[in-house]
Amino acid sequence: MLDFDEKKFEEKTLSREEIFHGKIFHVVRDIVSLPDNTTSFRELVFHNGGVAIAPVHGDKMILVGQYRKALEQFIFEIPAGKLEVGEELDPQAAALRELEEETGYKAENLIEMSAFYGTPGFSSEKTYVYFSSELTKIKHPRAADVGEFLEKVEVALPEAKEMIATGQISDAKTILAIWYWEIQQLKAEVEKNA
């Protein structure tokens, strides 16, 4: 880990104005004091966080497609969702819930691939991303969220990479998951040939 004085870069909040408080996130505008003693403003989005899971069933990854209004397009993603209040203490359980609701599967084990901030310049949203290749179909899974319309597909790695190239997959968490999956396959191939 790099050793340096990060405190000298701190921006101190001088004032905060609440702009919007919604069900999923809230927005504020801060006036801040910068390290050079000037002031500026920051528009910030506070979000409880999210979870995602890359489920691999046999030699295929399960993806869900849905229309994303912010993009005005239909894209495919790994199963994901927001952390409900209180779930930030156990994001793994939230990922298992999302997997069941969106695919009808449960995972026997989860490997945490990463936990990352997608847009730290203005958002506090942290996404926990898991991987599992040990899935079991559930007879009576939890229902999908109200107002959520999904198309479930299973794709092999070459098809997933092609979907990235054509823009059918365009979100960071899913691209990360597919790269992780490819690395796992390459590791398995190396071990098999060793």
Fold and architecture overview:
The chain has 194 residues and is of the alpha+beta class. The chain folds into two domains: 41 residues, no CATH class; 144 residues, Nucleoside Triphosphate Pyrophosphohydrolase (Alpha-Beta Complex). It is 23% helix and 40% strand. It has three helices and twelve strands, in the order βββββββαβββββαα. Helix 2 packs antiparallel against helix 3. The longest helix is centred in the last third of the chain and has 22 residues. Keywords: Hydrolase. It comes from Lactococcus allomyrinae.
Quick synopsis:
InterPro entries: Nudix_hydrolase, NUDIX_hydrolase-like_dom_sf, NUDIX_hydrolase_dom. One of its GO terms (biological process) is ribose phosphate metabolic process. The chain has 194 residues and is an alpha+beta fold.
